[in-house]
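Can you give me the bound-state structure? Components:
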Amino acid sequence: MTQTGTWAVKVGLAQMLKGGVIMDVVTPEHARIAEEAGACAVMALERVPSDIRKDGGVARMSDPEMIRGIIAAVTIPVMAKARIGHFVEAEVLQALGIDYIDESEVLTPADETHHIDKHAFTVPFVCGCRNLGEALRRIGEGAAMIRTKGEAGTGDIVEAVRHMRAVQDEIRRLQNMPDDEVYTAAKEMQAPLHLVQQVKREGRLPVVNFAAGGVATPADAALMMRLGADGVFVGSGIFKSENPPLVAKAIVEATTHYMDADVIARVSTGLGKAMPGIAVGSLHEKELLATRGW
Amino acid sequence: MTTLHSNGRKTVGVLALQGDFREHREMLERMGHEVREVRKPAQLEGLDALIIPGGESTTIARLILSNGFQQPLRDFCDSGRPVWGTCAGAILLARNVDRLDRPGIEMMDISVRRNAFGRQVDSFEAALDVKGIEGEPFHAVFIRAPQIEEVRAPAEAIATLPDGTVVAAREGNLLATSFHPELTGDTRLHELFLTIGRNGHE
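Here's the bound-state model for the whole set.
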């Protein structure tokens, strides 16, 4: 008697990705560079976030042919993005054999009220969050992995730090809270009560939590690990840098040795120019991606 | 002769380059053992046993090479102390692996096929009889799991699926499983593992 698509195998794949780096790739060649550098998975997409930001227009799920090409090019898990609420894009990605779907604010949302019912799928989902309530709403809908959103395509780590600190701070606050105040806390953070109680009991999220949105250097990756991330997503930070294979390897080493400044110093040496970057403070409110999702 | 219950507190290393090393650590700590996360070869010193966890085998293999771990891990296997690879760890212990673009530790006489059950949508849970484990079947979680396609003596198969697919093997002090006991609450395989040493490491 065997069972597929269970909560244990959905959450379990994310557990296997921990301590690793998931890299955005737009071609099979990028995917092979990422695998060679030690990426624990790749995110297949048509344009990296910094190009989506620059080009504007509607950003959608990638072309199935491109996704198939990337799946064929590597042996590591392949993730891909669906628009928030676009359950048909998600069904297509599942049919293509994608290993994890990112219901992502980096693409243009398809539904401004409802996220995808992720329990209805065999394939697992990862979703973004800015705080604990948002993380637990997504887990309630069936997300088996969470990532803090940061601000994708900027190369500015400030929002990733803000979101990771917010999640960790709210977990610590719950741990110190009397049991009879948890009901109101759940109401205020608009999160399912049983998940809030579970976080209070265990002192951590019920699923793996990676950092995303703004990681551009090995030190950025180590910083997010030090703040409590289980691993990191790197989008534009690798393939918009001067020397992608070298930067990719350096970020992988820094994520493993995040407590060891000597290693981070060594791998940060001679990497060439990092991605150019945009300070988040210079963006208009309507240019922010992190505020998408509800 | 080994016994099925561990006697006394041991210091167990978990290779912590990438993967689910925390789950192994927490299970071993619940069993009362001291656990060390190993990120540098020097940290192998003084360990009674070592686990190579689940994770992404290409990633861990790359970090084994870049951090000078290959020979120290081979020496550890030769020392007779128990070494256990779960999933990615099993891939790295095997002498023969398909589609792995870099060498692993290559110490067990088994051939392994990666992602042999398919992609993530084919990941599954199943009940399993494991040789050396008494009582109820072991609840096994398989995630993008490898199959052990060939087991050559002195290695022996110790668990198979109903269709005959080998998913666990042992060779002296070396243990390989395609599945993840560390993701369940069942400590029986961790207990068995700590008894398989040789050369005075029983």
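A couple of observations. Confidence is low (pLDDT under 50) at residues 1-6 of chain B. Chain B is about 20% helix and 30% strand.
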